[in-house]
Design brief:
The chain has about 240 residues and is of the alpha/beta class. It has helices at about 1-20, 35-45, 50-55, 60-70, 90-95, 110-120, 160-170, 190-210, 215-225, 230-240; strands at about 80, 100-105, 130-135, 145-155, 175-180. Strands 3-2-1-4-5 form a 5-stranded parallel β-sheet. Helix 3 (about 50-55) runs antiparallel to helix 8 (about 190-210), helix 4 packs across helix 5 and helix 8 (about 190-210) packs antiparallel against helix 9.
Length: about 240
């Protein structure tokens, strides 16, 4: 009985804490509060990789492999992974590029970067050329035309100003460089779209409530996915931001 009461008290305490924790508004676009987004990701960092694997049913690994194949990293190149989180994609880019490459794992959540460093300490192989950098995806601390490729996995919609982020990606990329964006979008098939919407509204928050260190943050993330542009509109944004010609 005492253990059960302790768990109930902990749940109530967590709910009170999250009630006091303001979340960014997914509708505000460029006006999105960067500080709120940063604090939100600081809170989800401890179990971020676990929750991603559960919510994607393990498909997150496949999606990262697709992104690595699209970028086709090579030795001696410089690649920046924006909104890198705990560095899962950055690690795979560094492994594929091999010796001589530099992969910059950039994120504005220091808790995420710390979690990535802890993963290395727990046995994830260290990659030569992998650099951890705290920075803003809309103001990259890199010179013009200084990288061969830019990647961002499930982070574009969480930038305070996604258009500014795309412009920055174009600024730092050398002529002929590559951009790979992994992001959620609206399913094209109506039947699958209904399943997808039901998943976002029921399964995702239920899993987050049980597993995540910040369940309320995942309710924001689900809403941000719903409001994200569909594929044609996102393609327009990429072209407008210099992501293609």
């Amino acid at each position: 009985m005492s253990g059960r009461l302790a768990r109930m008290d902990a749940t109530r305490a967590s709910a009170r804490h999250e009630a006091d924790f303001p979340l960014p508004d997914p509708e505000t676009g460029p006006a999105k509060d960067a500080a709120l987004v940063q604090r939100m990701f600081d809170r989800v960092a401890p179990r971020y990789d676990l929750v991603n694997a559960l919510l994607s049913l393990g498909h997150d690994r496949h999606w990262r492999r697709v992104a690595v194949a699209a970028v086709a990293p090579r030795a001696a190149e410089t690649i920046v992974d924006v909104a890198a989180g705990t560095g899962a994609l950055a690690h795979e880019l560094a492994a594929a590029a091999g010796d001589g490459a530099t992969v910059v794992a950039l994120d504005f959540s220091t808790a995420m970067l710390d979690a990535g460093a802890e993963r290395e300490e727990r046995g994830v192989p260290r990659r030569s050329g992998l650099a951890w950098v705290a920075g803003d995806g809309t103001r990259l601390p890199l010179p013009d035309a200084s990288v061969d490729a830019v990647t961002i996995a499930f982070g574009l919609r969480n930038l305070p100003d996604p258009a500014a982020g795309l412009a920055e990606f174009a600024r730092v990329t050398r002529p002929g460089g590559r951009l790979a964006v992994l992001e959620f979008s609206r399913p094209v098939h109506p039947a699958f779209r209904r399943v997808y919407d039901a998943y976002l509204g029921t399964v995702l928050p239920a899993v987050a409530d049980r597993v995540s260190s910040a369940p309320a943050a995942y309710r924001y993330l689900a809403e941000s996915i719903r409001r994200w542009p569909d594929q044609p509109r996102l393609a327009e944004h990429l072209l407008a931001g210099g992501g293609g010609t």
